[in-house]
Amino acid sequence: MLPAQLTVEFSQQGQYLSTLENLLTLFLVMLALIMIAMVPALRFSRQLTQPIGDMVSAVQRIRDGDLSMAIHTRAKGELSELETALRQMVAALADAQTELQQNVDQATQDLARDLGNHRDPEHRTGHGAQGSPESQPYQIRVPGQHEP
Predict the structure, then answer these.
(1) Are 84 and 114 in contact (CB under 8 A)?
(2) How far does CA 88 lie from the centroid of its chain?
(3) In this model, does residue 70 exceed pLDDT 70?
(4) Rounded Cα gap, residues 138 and 97, in angstroms
(5) What is the pTM assigned to this prediction?
(6) pLDDT for 25-39, tens place per residue?
(7) Which of 43, 45, 105, 119 has its CA 20 to 30 A from that of 137?
(8) Which uninterrupted H or E stretch holds 79?
(9) Would you list the DSSP string of 13-49?
(10) CA-to-CA distance for 43 and 36, rounded, in angstroms?
(11) Residues 55 and 73: beta-carbon distance below 8 Å
(12) CB–CB of 63/95 below 8 Å?
């Protein structure tokens, strides 16, 4: 009896095809995992960038003098704290603007009253160039300033 021999031949083309199939499968699995990971990443990105964009828009309106707008974003964490601080700043600016306008109005009334009290009858009749109200210098005193 002759010893039995078994000869196995592998086709290189078959191995190449199998390797390509494995690489394609690996590529598709990785692509699917990347797409799945992008969903929460995009959601997180929007949760972060949209409140920041809204606050930037609000700050620009404040810069332009609009203190009447309401700032409401769905920010969380530190961005929520920033939003609260921004709202408080707008309220403080509005209060300061109101107080400043009241002070200007009061100063205008005081100035008009003082000008009326400083004019004597000679000034009111308009006798001479020196007597005309237009020729008289007026001084405005600001509280806290020393006279020259």
Answers:
(1) no
(2) 14
(3) yes
(4) 27
(5) 0.52
(6) 999 999 999 999 999
(7) 105
(8) helix 78-118
(9) HHHHHHHHHHHHHHHHHHHHHHHHHHHHHHHHHHHHH
(10) 12
(11) yes
(12) no
